[in-house]
Amino acid sequence: MMKLALFVLVTLLGAKSSAAEGSCACEAEEYGFTIDCEDKDPMLDALQYLQRRNCAADCSSKGCELNYLIVQSHHDYCPEEGIPEEIEDGFHDYDTSCTACDIQRDFIPGAPDCPAPSCSDNTGNEAYVNLVEGGCLQDCSSNFCRDNFFQLRSTHDLCDHDVLTRASEEGLHDLERPCADQLCNVGEGESNQLVCDPHAGHDHGEHGAFEWAGVFSLDDASHIWSMQKVGGDYADPTMRLVLFPTDEPTEETMESLEESAETLIEGDSCEIIEDGESMTPASGGSCFELHVGRGDDSTFTIRTRGISGVAAYAQHVPTEFERDQHYLKDSNGADIEPIAQEGGGGHGDHGDHGDHDDHDDHDDHDDHDVKELVASMDGRNGQAGVMFDVVAKKDIHIVGIGSIHTTSRGGVDVEVWTKKGTYDGFQRDADAWTLVASTSVPGKGRNKPTPLPHGIMDEIDLDQGETQAFYVTLLNTVMRYSNGDKDSQAVDVSNSDLEILEGVGKGYPFKSTYNARVFNGSILYEVR
Questions:
Q1: What is the distance, to the nearest Å, from the Cα of residue 95 to the centroid of all Cα atoms in its chain?
Q2: Chain centroid, CA 383 distance in Å
Q3: How many Cα atoms occupy the beta-carbon half-sphere of 238 within 13 Å?
Q4: CA–CA dist 326, 311 (Å, integer)
Q5: Phi then psi dihedrals of residue 381, to 5 deg
Q6: Burial, 18: exposed, middle or buried (Cβ in 10 Å; 0-12, 13-18, 19+)?
């Protein structure tokens, strides 16, 4: 009966993408399966599907994607006694061909925290060799066995599956029985990982613990990190910041340290740094929790004597806290720009961050019949993009997207996709959409509309009563939108000519979906 149910589910999911992203709880909710460590039949049936369809060679089909998610989410979350031996032995055949969702081993009350893994070297595999050569398969009660088992467990649970060799992966499962009393917890603490929570303060993308990462070359004994009020308020009164000194400040270094940064930023060892205080990053990385002061500007000194580069990971994009000063300067006040970054747009001149005429780019319209319907701008949430529907109440031309909302004050790359009819049911189906505009614009920052150039897309004719879907997206996670009312078809804003409906937030491109999100920006149109 379970095999039939899985086949029916695969058939129903024919429009979904082969790229799984986001938390396993949200993927389970979207795909319609349950993560239940007590029920082994769905795990075994899913593994048999993977084997029959040769998904190890090609995991791009919808059935392979679904059934791998069932196996992988249970394998990574359930305790050893809850995982059938067939799953332990067969799961790793699909590591390189299938895409995993995000989940960690279930929390064990009273157990210590696992050590931070080193995902960029051979530490995990060396720990496995130590365990075998140290006789831990026979007796795992020593501190030596405990420490190496914790390191192997941490690497397995927190790093990509290809970091460990096949022997180390399978050897971990052999060790779980003799080392059953050696227990530690990774990352998530007591949070409920089986509940999909897309309404958190930020819809984080691939790296949920931090919103932004950057790497810098340094040449000074101290540097200043600043946070400023923008529009009268700080974006957040606190922000966690992880710093890794490095002699190789490159994009590759930044990416290699991301897993370790996640562990540090989610841990309990972040040192609190008040406005005006100093911090010194340790050689293996340090987490600091910055607390702003009562004034309009807060500054924090980073002691960098002997440090030639640093990789930084922050809970917010630093430009969210920029009013008229760059967020990182040396002791002489010179701006220090990132060599590479993720999560923020490119960064340009900071000399004109004062007040702007938010609609300057709209002044040169030759056709004075163009109208603009402006949606919400509260920007309380964000990711890379947003999908939504527009419904015509009269015969109209859609001229373009007038503006968007982004936290960036640097350059941002914008794409506009569209399709006839609703977006609903096509959130991951890129083939159903047409790319009608692609442009780069300077972001105006939080709580200000960022105008898009006119004429970058052809007019779209809509008859009265017709629906047109739009997918407006940036290439990284600095788009802002609002939380909706859990009804993705509710009207957000309207006039006598058209309606803009609530939609969904999106990872780029056509990835994770966050329900009940509201486009922040405007639609340009003409009445026919």
A1: 21
A2: 7
A3: 11
A4: 17
A5: -145, 175
A6: middle
Question: Are the beta carbons of 233 and 295 closer than 8 angstroms?
Answer: no
To the nearest 10°, report the CA torsion of 61, 64, 65, 66.
120
- Contact yes or no for 94/73 (Cβ under 8 A): no
Cα angle 186, 191, 193; round to 5: 85
Q: How far is CA 222 from the centre of its chain?
A: 31
Token reading at 99:
């895409």
- Is residue 452 within 8 A of residue 414, CB to CB? The reply is yes
Contact between 261 and 120 under an 8 Å Cβ cutoff? The reply is: no
Confidence label for 410 from pLDDT (cuts 50, 70 and 90): low
Within the chain, how many helices (H) and strands (E) appear?
10, 25
Vertex 423: Cα angle to 419 and 429 (nearest 5): 80
Domain range 360-527, CATH architecture: Sandwich (2.60)
Q: How many CB atoms lie within 10 A of CB 420?
A: 12
Cα dihedral across residues 264, 270, 275, 278: positive or negative? negative
How far apart CA 313 and CA 285 sit, in angstroms, is 11
3-class secondary structure per residue, 77-135: HCCHHHCCHHHHHHHHHHCCCCCCCECCCCCCCCCCECCCCCCCCCHHHHHHHHHHHCC
Beta bridge mates, 387: 471, 504
d(CA 389, CA 317) in angstroms, rounded, equals 29
313 neighbors 265 (Cβ within 8 angstroms): yes
Identify whether the C-beta of residue 395 lies closer than 8 Å to the C-beta of residue 464.
Answer: yes
β pairing state of 278-279 and 297-303: parallel
- Amino acid of residue 399: V
Distance CA 430, CA 18 (A): 11
pTM of the full structure: 0.38
CA 150 – CA 173 distance, rounded (Å)? 13
Q: What is the pLDDT of residue 191?
A: 61
Which residue is it, tokens 């083939």? 431
Residue 200: CB partners within 8 Å, gap ≥ 6?
none
CA atoms of 449 and 414, how far apart (whole Å): 14
pLDDT in tens, 49-90: 889 888 888 888 777 888 899 999 988 888 877 788 888 778
Strand residue runs (E) in 125-219: 212-217
Q: 422 is written with which tokens? A: 């609703």
Domain ranges of the chain: 2-176, 212-342, 360-527
Question: DSSP of 193-204, one letter per residue?
Answer: TTS--TTSSS--
Amino acid at 434: T
When pLDDT is cut at 50, 70 and 90, the band that residue 164 belongs to is: confident
Q: Most distant CA pair in the chain: distance in Å?
A: 83
